[in-house]
Amino acid sequence: MENGSLEIWLHPKENGYSQTRKLNFLQRLSIAIDSSSLYVLCLSLFLFTFSNTALHYLHDHCETQIVHCDLKPSNILLDNDMTAHVDDFGLARLLSETSIDPSQSQIFSTGIKGTIGYMAPECELCSNVTTYGDVYSFGILLLEMFTGKGPTHEVFTDGLDLHNFVKAKLHGQVMQVVDPTLFAPGEVGAATAAAAENMDGDESIEDSVQECVVSILQIGVACSVEVPQDRMNMRDVTSKLHAIRVSFTGTRN
């Protein structure tokens, strides 16, 4: 892909790129929506290969589900328009339909089923593979996108993890965990000038972005809770992310 992976945009310095390479708020939100939308599509598609052509496959009549098992920034590729594409289905597993609720479908597998930090707790303890695991990985990915910190960042020691790091600051202290580059001089205004027309007279673009970021981080936290059944459904995640973008920009594009 022309713009490489999400990994090199979130952590350019660690990947040998200039620190000037960064994503603004709307780019991150759009990438999150692209990734969640493609994941929802994958739940009802049987794909031998996956690329941007996946959107052209008929999926309403397919029953086989796919669990990606390795959602992380390096597996999200960005094309010339910064549209996100889920990549690398090397660890993906096909699920048999074992219940009415497709999220309950599961298989048992041996070997590595993900990447440390993005892998759901239950996947580390047993061989049970469900769609809940991908929801957890997406939640961690979402938190990383808006905090700038990966799940294995050096700050996470003595039992502290990305999920609890964000959860503890959601009420009134969220700016302590948000990626500071989102509010760098000129970044917010340059990326969201069109959205200014939708702001209330007493509301600044920065305030609006902060409000949206809180909502996004709440989704990330809800997706990465420890109990699998308590995690959000990916269709609800996609719907809520779309609603956040609509409320901010005033458009559905």
Automatic annotation (TrEMBL):
InterPro entries: Kinase-like_dom_sf, LRR_receptor-like_kinase, Prot_kinase_dom, Ser/Thr_kinase_AS
PROSITE patterns noted in UniProt: PROTEIN_KINASE_DOM (PS50011), PROTEIN_KINASE_ST (PS00108)
Pfam families, per the entry: Pkinase
Domain of life: Eukaryota
All residue ranges annotated as the Protein kinase domain in the record: 1-245
Signal peptide per UniProt: none
Protein name according to UniProt: Protein kinase domain-containing protein
Organism lineage: Eukaryota, Viridiplantae, Streptophyta, Embryophyta, Tracheophyta
